[in-house]
Amino acid sequence: MARIKPFKGVRPPKDLVEKVASRPYDVLNSEEARKEAEGNEMSLYHIIKPEIDFEPGFDEHDPAVYDKAVENFRKFQKNGWLVQDSKENYYIYAQTMDGRTQYGFVVGAWVPDYMEGRIKKHELTRRDKEEDRMKHVRCNNANIEPVFFAFPDNAELEDIIRKVTAGKPEYDFVAPDGFGHTLWVIEDESTIKAITEEFAKIPNLYIADGHHRSAAAALVGAEKAAANPAHTGNEEYNYFMAVAFPASHLKIIDYNRVVKDLNGLTPAQFLDRLSENFTVEEKGSEIYTPSALHNFSLYLGGKWYSLTAKPGTFNDSDPIGVLDVTVSSDLILRDILNITDLRSDKRIDFVGGIRGLGELKRRVDSGEMAMALALYPVTMDQLINIADTGNIMPPKTTWFEPKLRSGLIIHKLDD
Q1: How would you classify residue 16: left for phi > 0, otherwise alpha for psi between -120 and 50, otherwise beta?
Q2: 57: Cβ–Cβ under 8 A, 6 or more apart, which residues?
Q3: Of 149, 114, 133, 135, whose CA–CA distance to 222 is shortest?
């Protein structure tokens, strides 16, 4: 059963939220963060990417950078750019993109639920990336950025969302990327109690995005528990900050591939090899978007093609075998192009669907890449099925958009 609690959020005053809020630390590099924060001393990048306060090229993992994060976090609180709520609350955070809004509960998620597998994952994590975020959580003694969870739909929680969001929000703004961000504070004790009780009926939570942040936050909480001889299990460090959305609110968008060469084949030979396992249809110069599961879009030599996997080339009864990322990785990237390690092969790159299929065309037309492959998006049902069966998705399978805005709420581990 999912154990959650409200917490005393540390957050910006209403009139400063747009100055403080930022994109997540891992969606941009140091130079991009430096540029976005230029002239804005209140930008959260000074805490989550504090290397921007050093000379360009300074090692972002240098101990001085983590020290600067702590210094800046203290400065933000001292200057009143971040203020802690006086009581424990839940919050509802809404994101709007392309006319669609998703509503999530901002909660304290219980560390043992992660450690014991009740908060389920679908991706592998890298220890070096975990350790970076663990250092950041340890030194600030806070979860500066939330993680992104999904949970099975729940009628009572949907009803609470409707009632709370009918009221006046605390924050309501459109970020520079055009996505809307709205936040309500839930102070009513009976509503807080109802949320806690409803989540307790939910068997599992699912990490949608933020596997490294989840691991780091939970591991630091577990460290603190092990180091405290008087540990009771009720301390604030036993919880980490998450935004949990009903699964039906979320939409996974496509995550596409571009490849530098055809492994010595001519375009005609490549298409001929594809026809062994796919029905290949030329679609012309107009962008072609995959129409269904097991249908792919190929851009090659100035033309778009539809590729439909032939029966017997996929396994719809296997949570991994059903995925189009598996079909394309095995039958195209591995068998024809000899790309076997998606994590390390320099011949392949990945393009989030937020950039549109026009980005695939651009990268091939420029001569940088030889071909592009667009995939039909994974569904939330597929993601949950993979997590429930203990499987791990192949690399670069899911792309969630919009990303959670950082800086709307921070969770301290000691209060």
Answers
A1: alpha
A2: none
A3: 114
Q: What is the pTM of this model?
A: 0.91
CA dist 331 and 356 (Å) reads 24
Q: Give the pLDDT confidence score for residue 353 in this predicted structure.
A: 85
Q: Are strands 171-174 and 252-253 parallel, antiparallel or unpaired?
A: unpaired
- Alpha-carbon gap, residue 334 to 130, rounded angstroms: 29
Task: Phi first, then psi: give them for residue 148, nearest 5 degrees.
Answer: -115, 110
Low-confidence ranges of the chain (pLDDT < 70): none
Helices marked H in 332-402: 357-365, 380-388
Please tell me whether residue 266 adopts helix, strand or coil conformation: coil
Residue 7's pLDDT is 98
Contacts of 261 (CB under 8 A, 6+ apart): 337, 347, 370
Q: Kindly report the number of other CB atoms within 10 A of residue 375's CB atom.
A: 23
Supply the pLDDT for residue 138: 97
Q: What is the pLDDT of residue 123?
A: 87
Find all residues with CB under 8 Å of 230, minimum gap 6, and list them: none
Distance from C-alpha of 173 to C-alpha of 139, rounded to nearest angstrom? 31
pLDDT at 129: 86
Buried (b) or exposed (e) across 101-129, using 16+ Cβ within 10 A? ebbbbbbbbbbbbbeeebbbbbbebeeee
Which stretches of 285-346 are assigned E, i.e. beta strand?
A: 295-300, 303-309
Nearest residue to 377 (alpha-carbon basis) of 402, 361, 394, 397: 397
How far apart, in whole angstroms, are the C-alpha atoms of residue 95 and residue 105? 12
Residues 6+ apart with CB under 8 A from 235: 224, 225, 228
Q: Which residue type does 149 have? A: F
Quickly list DSSP for 84-109. Answer: E-SS-BEEEEEEEETTEEEEEEEEEE
